[in-house]
């Protein structure tokens, strides 16, 4: 998912939870360091989404995390959790899945709540992402509205999709990622996506929840079948 920007501003360290996202080119090197490269982009330079000034799009440049970091316990050499997640969305936006693959742990579990079962393992997850990018064009992009940065082991994100700079209908979502340091690199070990539904039942949903709760109270054994 790549993002089209018109102007840029420099984020200051005091900026609260700076949302991010969007590169055109990202690649990963698995030699002595894990590198995320984009051509001439600065991760601290952002531009507002054309239709949503509160959302920003980051354009990352070279960031490295040493393979030795896990051995000497110095996590300052690793990418932060939010940087890994930003690079993940950047790779999806640009349709460069080679850069995404190295960010995902071999035994990662990914839940997209519109599917009945989670995707388990890097191979299954990458196969899904391949199908996903084959379904959409590069003009449909993820834009991060907000991202948590305090904890590199757990990152929450709110986002939406834009088509040529305009919000795409029914595309708001939120995601949660759990990360761990594996073989000297911080990787995603679990992810969950929850997407805005096309059909919005409103208070009817409360009626349904009340009905299900009543059934479970009357027939507790039904819970074993859910």
Report on the structure:
The structure is a single chain. With 226 residues, the chain is an alpha+beta fold. Helix content is 23%, strand content 33%. It contains five helices and 13 strands. The chain has helices spanning 69-72, 81-94, 97-101, 122-135, 204-218; strands at 9-10, 27-30, 33-37, 45-48, 56-58, 63-66, 104-112, 119-120, 140-147, 154-163, 166-167, 173-182, 185-195. Strands 7, 8, 9, 10, 11, 12 and 13 form a seven-stranded mixed β-sheet that branches. The chain has a three-stranded antiparallel β-sheet with strand order 1-4-5, with no helix packed on it. A three-stranded antiparallel β-sheet has the order 2-3-6.
Secondary-structure map with pairings?
Layout: E1 9-10, E2 27-30, E3 33-37, E4 45-48, E5 56-58, E6 63-66, H1 69-72, H2 81-94, H3 97-101, E7 104-112, E8 119-120, H4 122-135, E9 140-147, E10 154-163, E11 166-167, E12 173-182, E13 185-195, H5 204-218
Parallel strand pairs: 7-13
Antiparallel strand pairs: 1-4, 2-3, 3-6, 4-5, 7-8, 9-10, 10-11, 10-12, 12-13
Overall geometric form: globular
Mean pLDDT: 75
- The low-confidence parts are 1-48, 58-63
The string of secondary-structure elements, in order, is EEEEEEHHHEEHEEEEEH
Features:
13 strands, 3-stranded antiparallel sheet, 5 helices, 23% helix, alpha+beta, 226 residues, disordered N terminus, globular
């Amino acid at each position: 998912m790549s993002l089209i920007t018109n102007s840029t501003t420099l984020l200051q360290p005091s900026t609260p939870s700076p949302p991010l996202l969007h590169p055109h080119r990202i690649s990963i090197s698995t030699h002595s360091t894990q590198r995320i490269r984009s051509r001439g982009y600065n991760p601290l330079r952002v531009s507002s989404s054309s239709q949503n000034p509160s959302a920003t799009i980051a354009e990352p440049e070279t960031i490295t995390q040493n393979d030795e970091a896990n051995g000497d316990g110095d996590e300052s050499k690793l990418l932060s959790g939010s940087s890994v997640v930003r690079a993940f969305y950047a790779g999806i936006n640009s349709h460069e899945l080679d850069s995404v693959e190295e960010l995902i742990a071999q035994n990662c579990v990914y839940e997209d709540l519109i599917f009945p079962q989670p995707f388990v393992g890097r191979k299954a997850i990458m196969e899904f992402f391949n199908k996903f990018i084959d379904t959409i064009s590069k003009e449909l992009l993820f834009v991060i509205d907000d991202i948590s940065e305090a904890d590199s082991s757990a990152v929450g994100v709110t986002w939406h999709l834009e088509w040529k700079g305009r919000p795409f209908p029914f595309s708001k979502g939120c995601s949660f990622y759990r990360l761990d340091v594996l073989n000297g690199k911080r990787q995603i070990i679990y992810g969950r996506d929850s997407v805005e539904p096309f059909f919005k039942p409103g208070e009817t949903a409360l009626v349904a929840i009340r009905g299900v709760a009543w059934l479970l109270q009357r027939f507790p054994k039904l819970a074993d079948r859910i």
